Amino acid sequence: MARVSDDLLLAAQSGDRRALTQLLVVLQPDIRRYARRLCYRASLIEDVVQEALIVVYRRVGTIRTPAALAGWLLTVIARLCMLPALMLMRGVEELASQEESRELAKVPSDELRIDLVDAIESLSPSHREVLLLRDLEDLTIGEIARRLGVTREAAKSRLRRARTLVREYLLDTKDSGREST
């Protein structure tokens, strides 16, 4: 990786536009090389390079030292290279979710409300709390993380798990209700 001086990084982090532009110019060949190595499709490389430059531009203030820059960039580029595959997986998950939603829409709303309360009550306290903070109090992930004293990633993970557990509970309740009628 090209040598980025402490002075250049500090100047870019402090908002010096010239330094930030110079940093992006210095990093672009390395970003392109990393993208060639990490992306599974050659057609993604230019998009990944552009997105990585945008990430550097927006997040330059989070980089601790020039020595940490290479590892951070590798992580960013690896994630960007995986994005199309992740979007495909999310599309498949979305289709499954739509099917589940269609099934739950058939349940009378009064029954669904009762089942939803039961589902929320069945959650562990940490999952219940994160779900209520997000969906009832309408807090952002950052606000939830600060309130709970956890990282943003932990808050997202708990919320995702809580929603999955509620969905599974509702689908199990619906399935068991249908079988008994």
TrEMBL record:
Keywords: Sigma factor, Transcription, Transcription regulation. Belongs to the sigma-70 factor family. ECF subfamily. Residues 27-81 form the RNA polymerase sigma-70 region domain. This is RNA polymerase subunit sigma-24. GO terms for molecular function: DNA binding; sigma factor activity. CDD domains: Sigma70_r4. InterPro entries: RNA_pol_sigma-70-like (IPR039425), RNA_pol_sigma-70_dom (IPR014284), RNA_pol_sigma70_r2 (IPR007627), RNA_pol_sigma70_r4_t2 (IPR013249), RNA_pol_sigma_r2 (IPR013325), RNA_pol_sigma_r3/r4-like (IPR013324), WH-like_DNA-bd_sf (IPR036388). It comes from the Bacteria. Residues 115-164 form the RNA polymerase sigma factor 70 region 4 type domain. It holds the Pfam family Sigma70_r4_2. One of its GO terms (biological process) is DNA-templated transcription initiation.
